[in-house]
Design brief:
The complex is a heterotrimer. Chain A has 11 helices and 12 strands. In chain A, β4 and β5 form a beta hairpin. Chain B is an alpha/beta fold. Chain B is 24% helix and 29% strand. Chain B has 9 helices and 15 strands. Chain B is globular and about 50 Å long. Chain C is α/β, with parallel strands linked by helices. In chain C, 30% of the residues lie in helices and 8% in strands. Classes of the chains: A alpha+beta, B alpha/beta, C alpha/beta. At the A-B interface, β4, β11, β12 and α9 of A face β4 and β6 of B.
């Protein structure tokens, strides 16, 4: 099913979705765009390229409360925080970010013990993918094409949206999307012309040029394994690295977290909070032992995790080429360049 | 851990505390489960660990020191940790008395591969305070229902001083049995010490059994492991028959939080037990 | 007269090559190629041949003094320094983190530097607004004269017009944006504490979650740790992925310090760090 609505009617669409559940959509803030839970339909702003923070926070928020407790009281009085999850709509996600959800699914709910928080949020959420604007060139930082992701890939979305002049074409991709789209009375039926435009855009998206280099997941993983002990290489790559967490916090596929007990005047919450392998104390043990004291060891961990360890463990590269880490790196470190250097080395 | 959420601990009560060493900073805590079904569901094997959980302080991953052949409780030997990052959990636990209640998540990780060890001779090598899961393994193998499943058992255990040896009563008991050979060594003895002196790797060279059908199970501080693994390799043990347990900073214990990886393996969920053959396949990112 | 970035780049290469060839220094902290021309990166040249990789253009905004403390004490190094960067070096000398005799300072006079993320020209609004390095051994270009001299504190006018409540509301709103990536402290040449107070767990000064209380604790404490020490390079604000105007607070504290004690940070190697140095005639205003 393909439906159509004028982009300037997106507010009405947003309002309709808000009646059915929680709406999470791009909002313009002073530093740029971010996905936020919408309280006023007018906040939704589709006039964006991509957000600062990736939409992973819809399923894996920076803080997630596990248990409330009081210090000095018995553990028996501590109460787990119930996850009251309403149906949610994640609106306007770029195809590379949609791909990141599938990569994170493997880790959080597809292997070993299931992470109940990720899984429940994922199950409750309908994803509205949104094609990049193919009339504009890709930004210098982006390289999703390298990883086989098109600029208008509908796979992974429940409903996929393509902008056509002043209209938004919306196509149901999954049965869940189909059901939702059928029930929404705002968008109008699309024409055969629109159908063709949608299909053409998806096809053009596959050939849309970002920076790209030939990356075979298995070969790259092996290359990084071979490079692990090449300290010279890693020191060169990490000259500039400040060892801050900007890259990991904006990344759609970084999932490292800490579990913290945060107490204020005897009342506390055990919660998980995003953490970063780039932080000095990430692997610092209580004994004082720290296997990664140097910047190059930490940058190596980050890059190898995405391009080698994850491939070996889960079969996929844990990067979608969205370019956020490069865009927000204070010293312009570019993971794509590191991969290129590694392939050449 | 709670049945539907692996991040929520089960409540347990301290039923016994044993002061293990003369420096009083290592104690063995015996816990009983406050919910009967938690205890029934807590099925573990030697070598596994659990997260000890104290709200307001945090969680600390500790190897299980009791043997599954001792039903009704579970024991952990805990050192008051922390020089750089003060160990809040271990300090709080040390300050607790019998009857105190804490949380427990586990059992976590893979055990010593007991089925693989069957019908083989076993040399257990331990150093210092990391002897805990080895004690679990030894008591498991020595249990009357299990002893016949294993061949000769040799234990080589070292501590810095005589006063720092753990489980002194049990060591004495093993010394009197004829179905286990026990070799105790200290780095430096005192005026009353009549036993061996010397570092674990050197003692191993001297007293290790023949590599024939024998598996070495090694656990200790990183520096001991580092120097002991090659000793057994040189003695002719195959890399598959040299086993050890790794330590990395952990948080979740279930392979989700991304903290304890060595290469593509998470120490918590893929380990902590690895053979030397497996270790050599991993990048040197742990010592 | 416009700055010739190309000329500075050439001189930087020549000096770096010479210093490394003669063994006068074991490394040169300068700038290298990034993923495109607009995004050069901090670079360390260790061999004479590395000097060919050095670049300099209007986007080379990073403060290379930040990297000095990463190397063992006594390492002989050359550092490319623009005006504020040289002040960071001076301040680090005052704080005995580096020694003057271990350093060769390659001074870069410049104006019209541009923020690579936004393309905006960097001026006295977000930095100290000086054009010439305060301390150097070699100047890689001609001193800048004739550019407008603007007080780095002019930008504070609007902020200072706010009353106490308005200021608190302003900072609460700004700091609520913080995601605690710590890019600000990591980009700061003066943030060398190990461990940083916010990473300590006993006592625990602030929580890890990006919520108001912890964010205020982290930033307000950091602001005050930098009192009398911030040399106003503006790197913290440029590093911030969510555009928190950290420079405003640093400037305000720097201005107050200067008013009270008559000394700006990092202006002379003879100075002592202003809040460490007790003088009988010091202003008591700080106690008011």
């Amino acid at each position: 099913m393909l439906k159509k609505t004028a982009i300037n009617k997106a507010t009405e669409l947003a309002a309709a979705l808000m009646e059915k559940g929680t709406l999470i959509a791009p909002v313009k803030e002073d530093a740029g765009f971010n996905f936020r839970e919408i309280s006023d339909a007018k906040q939704v702003d589709l006039n964006f390229h991509n957000t600062i923070i990736s939409p992973k926070s819809a399923f894996f928020p920076q803080t997630e409360d596990f248990v409330r407790y009081q210090t000095g009281k018995s553990i028996l009085e501590a109460t787990p925080v119930e996850l009251n999850i309403k149906p949610a709509f994640l609106f306007g996600v770029r195809p590379c970010d949609v791909k990141s959800f599938e990569i994170m699914d493997i880790h959080f709910s597809g292997t070993g013990l299931v992470d109940p928080y990720w899984q429940k949020r994922r199950e409750a959420t309908t994803v509205f993918g949104y094609a990049f604007d193919l009339d504009k060139p890709a930004e210098a930082e982006e390289f999703y094409q390298t990883l086989g992701i098109g600029a208008a890939d509908p796979e992974g979305s429940d409903i996929f949206m393509v902008k056509k002049d002043n209209d938004l074409l919306m196509k149901a991709i999954t049965p869940r999307g189909e059901k939702l789209l059928t029930g929404l009375n705002i968008p109008s039926e699309a024409s055969a012309d629109d159908e063709k435009y949608f299909d053409d855009t998806v096809a053009a998206g596959r050939n849309f040029k970002t920076r790209s280099t030939c990356v075979d997941a298995r070969a790259t993983a092996k290359k990084f394994e071979d490079l692990f002990h090449n300290t010279d290489f890693w020191e060169k790559m990490s000259h500039a690295c400040l060892s801050c967490g900007a890259c990991t916090f904006v990344c759609p596929t970084c999932y490292c977290f800490d579990i913290c007990d945060e107490t204020l005047f005897s009342r506390g919450t055990r919660r998980r909070v995003w953490d970063a392998c780039m932080f000095t104390d990430f692997t610092l043990e209580a004994s004082g032992h720290n296997p990664r004291t140097k910047v190059y060891q930490r940058l190596r961990q980050k890059v190898c995790h995405k391009y080698s360890y994850h491939v070996r463990k889960y079969g996929v590269i844990s990067c979608v080429g969205c370019g956020r880490c490069t865009r927000y790196c204070p010293v312009n470190i570019d993971i794509f360049s590191i991969v290129e250097e590694a392939v050449k080395a | 851990m709670s049945s539907n959420n692996p991040y929520i601990p089960m409540p347990v009560e301290i039923s016994k505390i044993i002061d293990e060493v003369d420096t009083h900073d290592i104690k063995t805590f015996r816990f009983t489960f406050l919910n009967k079904e938690d205890g029934e569901n807590f099925k573990y094997l030697p070598g596994q660990f659990a997260e000890l959980s104290i709200y307001g302080k945090g969680e600390s991953p500790i190897g299980i020191a009791s043997s599954p052949t001792e039903p009704g409780y579970v024991e952990f030997t805990v050192q008051r940790a922390g020089t750089i990052l003060p160990g809040l959990v271990t300090a709080a636990l040390h300050d607790m008395d019998e009857g105190g209640k804490i949380g427990l998540r586990g059992p976590l990780g893979h055990s010593w591969p007991v089925e693989f060890l069957e019908k083989k001779n076993i040399v257990v090598v331990g150093g210092g305070f990391a002897f805990t899961t080895l004690r679990s393994l030894i008591n498991y193998m020595l249990h009357q229902d299990n002893r016949s499943r294993f061949g000769d058992i040799t234990v080589i255990y070292g501590a810095r001083t005589p006063g720092l040896l753990l489980y002194k009563d049990e060591l004495a008991g093993w010394g009197k049995r004829d179905d286990i050979k026990t070799v105790i060594t200290v780095d430096k003895g005192d005026e009353t010490w009549k036993g061996r002196q010397g570092f674990v790797p050197a003692v191993c060279k001297e007293v290790a059994p023949s590599p024939n059908n024998t598996v070495a199970v090694i656990c200790g501080p990183p520096v001991m492991i580092k120097f002991t693994l090659p000793v057994f390799f040189e003695l002719g043990f195959s890399k598959e028959n040299i086993l050890t347990s790794l330590e990395m900073r952990m948080k979740c214990g279930i392979g989700k939080c991304g903290r304890c990886n060595v290469g593509y393996k998470y120490v918590c969920s893929d380990g902590p037990v690895f053979s030397l053959a497996q270790l050599e396949e991993l990048p040197r990112d742990f010592w | 007269m416009a700055i010739s970035f190309k000329q500075i780049e050439d001189k930087l290469k020549t000096e770096a090559k010479g210093l490394l060839e003669t063994g006068k220094v074991s490394l040169v902290l300068a700038y290298g190629k990034g993923y495109d021309e607009k995004h050069p990166m901090p670079y360390v040249a260790r061999r004479p041949s590395d000097a060919d990789n050095i670049v300099f253009n209007e986007f080379c905004t990073h403060n290379m003094a930040r990297y000095m403390v990463r190397y063992p004490a006594g390492t002989k190094m050359a550092v490319a320094v623009k005006a504020a960067d040289s002040r960071a070096v001076i301040q680090l000398i005052q704080e005995e983190k580096v020694k003057r005799e271990d350093l060769v300072l390659l001074g870069i006079p410049a104006y019209g530097m541009k923020n690579p993320k936004t393309g905006e020209t960097i001026d006295s609004k977000t930095t100290c607004g000086l054009y010439n390095p305060v301390l150097y051994d070699v100047l890689l270009g001609e001193e800048v004269h004739g550019q407008p001299v603007v007080s780095p504190y002019d930008v504070l006018a609007q902020y200072e017009a706010m009353d106490k409540e308005a200021r608190f509301a302003f900072w609460k709103k700004e700091l609520d944006k913080c995601i605690r990536c710590y890019a600000c402290r990591k980009a700061c040449p003066m943030c060398y504490c190990d461990p940083c107070f916010i990473d300590q767990n006993k006592p625990k000064w602030g929580e890890k979650s990006p919520e108001s209380a912890g964010n205020l604790m982290y930033h307000l404490t950091r602001f005050h740790h930098l009192a009398g020490r911030c040399i106003d390079c503006g790197e913290c604000s440029r590093a911030c992925p969510v555009n928190i105007p950290l420079y405003l607070f640093h400037k305000k504290v720097a201005k107050d310090c200067e008013d009270m004690f008559g000394q700006a940070a990092g202006m002379s190697v003879e100075d002592k760090p202003v809040l460490v140095n007790f003088r009988v005639d010091d202003s008591d205003k700080i106690l008011e």
